[in-house]
Design brief:
alpha/beta, 4-stranded parallel beta sheet, 15% strand
């Protein structure tokens, strides 16, 4: 979320950051609203008066938590956007496709395989249904594993760059014989910003640099 806040503030947009606690280093003109995304009234208050709501939230990497909190968060956000007449832009990932043997495309069907992928597919259906019903204008921008400034917990940072800086071998938690796209966070933020004011209503994948080698 930091990169999109910085980008929107620099282009002169009025920006409100809504999360549980105020982050350090907010640009001077950026407003902060303490918000619990699992509380519908809190989300309604945070989204009031907004033209666009960009969802960059995350939860602990536990499928039991995801099953409980993601549907609630999505329902609350969509309801708040509907009331505010705000466009909904979802910073998404690629889990909803499930395991595949071909390059991922936006046209692939949603999966029911796997606990985390199933949750992401379910919440995708929520925003797609809200858009189809005319309740909310919605779009998702999908990225792969992230890397870039202020992303210390990314796979590339935690297992690769951190180890290399310490003089240790880089480790990747997936087979290195297969090309694997990595999404640069500032590029992803620019894609989110572009869709904050566009009329597109569909998922878009934010593509990284072409994978020229698997090693």
């Amino acid at each position: 979320g930091r990169e999109i806040v910085k980008l929107l503030a620099e282009r002169g947009d009025k920006v409100r950051v809504a999360q549980r606690s105020q982050p350090r280093g907010l640009p001077p003109a950026v407003e902060f609203a303490p918000t619990d995304v699992l509380n519908p009234e809190s989300v309604l208050h945070a989204c009031a008066g907004s033209e666009a709501v960009i969802c960059c939230i995350g939860f602990p990497y536990d499928s039991r938590i995801w099953r409980k909190v993601w549907p609630t968060a999505m329902v609350n956000l969509l309801a708040a956007c509907e009331k505010a007449k705000a466009r909904f832009i979802f910073a998404d990932n690629l889990y909803m496709y499930g395991p595949q043997t071909a390059p991922l495309t936006e046209e692939m069907p949603l999966t029911d395989f796997g606990r985390k992928p199933r949750v992401r597919a379910d919440i995708t259906r929520l925003w797609q249904d809200a858009h189809a019903q005319g309740r909310v204008q919605a779009v998702a921008v999908r990225g792969s594993d992230f890397y870039g400034p202020d992303v210390p917990t990314s796979v590339l940072s935690a297992y690769g760059v951190k180890n290399l800086l310490a003089g240790k071998p880089a480790i990747m938690p997936y087979p290195v014989i297969f090309p694997h796209d990595i999404t640069y966070v500032p590029d992803f933020a620019r894609a989110l910003a572009r869709h904050s004011s566009s009329s597109a209503a569909r998922p878009w994948q934010s593509r990284g640099a072409t994978c020229r080698s698997a090693t």
